[in-house]
Structure formats: structure tokens, C-alpha cells
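hi!! sorry for the late reply, been swamped w classes. u asked for the two structures so here they r. pasted raw, havent cleaned anything up. first the sequence of the first protein and right below it the C-alpha cells
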Amino acid sequence: KPEPLFNCIEVLKQKSERDGRGTYDAIIYLTPDGELLNQRICNALSLHKNIMMVAG
């Protein structure tokens, strides 16, 4: 049931905007069968100001 996770993300997005940090440049869902997080991806992500990584 994904609703609690989606609700949490929406609240965090609103809080970030309200606090003056702006929107998230990327929201990344980590999964066991997704793309391997490697140095190339980390370098690309480091160029973003505000990212959210969701695991679990």
C-alpha cells in the first residue's frame, strides 16, 4: 500500500517549498532490482541542490 509513502513525500515537498529550499530536483526510489548506484550516478546527483532518496 504506497499511499503513506506518497503522502509523506508530498508533505516533505510542501515543507521544503515553504521553508524556502525550493522543490526537489530529483526524487529517487531505491529498489533491489533498479540501476546500480555507482560513482558516475553519484557524480551526476552531486550537481543537484536538493534531492530525496527513498529506501525501504
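now the second protein. again sequence first, C-alpha cells right under
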Amino acid sequence: YVELAELLVRPQRLFSNENIDTSLVLTPERFGSVNRIFVLSDKDRTLVKEFQLWMIKNNPPNHVEHIQDSDHMVMISMPLDLGDCLLSLAKKFA
């Protein structure tokens, strides 16, 4: 049981630069026709801030929103702030 517990608490990366598949082609006519918003969560320990910034740089959204002190589950850690953010974005991009 101890070995299993150690495996479960060991930090592991979900993504790596080496695992990115380049065979998928997204065109501006299709994928680019939908407004994309990225919500940056500065307390996220699953997708650390550096990786979130890498995602933004390599696939730029139309808008980046930052919810201060939010973690990976923004809807649980900052539900009121997320609600305000979504209302604001709905008005802006509707």
C-alpha cells in the first residue's frame, strides 16, 4: 500500500513539448472562426503558470482573462469571480 500511495502523490507532468502531434491542421476558416478565450489561473498546480503562458503563446486566443487566486477548478475555487467573468465575456463577444 505504501508504494501505491507514493505513486499517487508523486508529481507528474500531464503534457510535454515532445508529445505534441503536428499532423492536425487547423484552418482560420474553421477553427479560427470561433472566438477563443483563455482563463489564466495563477494558483493552478496542474497546469503551472509557465505552461499556461506557453499554451497562450503557441495558440493565441482572442482574449485572455486572469482570475486572481484561482486554481485548476476555477468554478470551485472562485465561483463568483468566474460568474462575473463569464457574464462580462458573454456581453463582449456576443
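hope this helps!! also noticed smth abt the second:
The longest strand covers residues 37-41.
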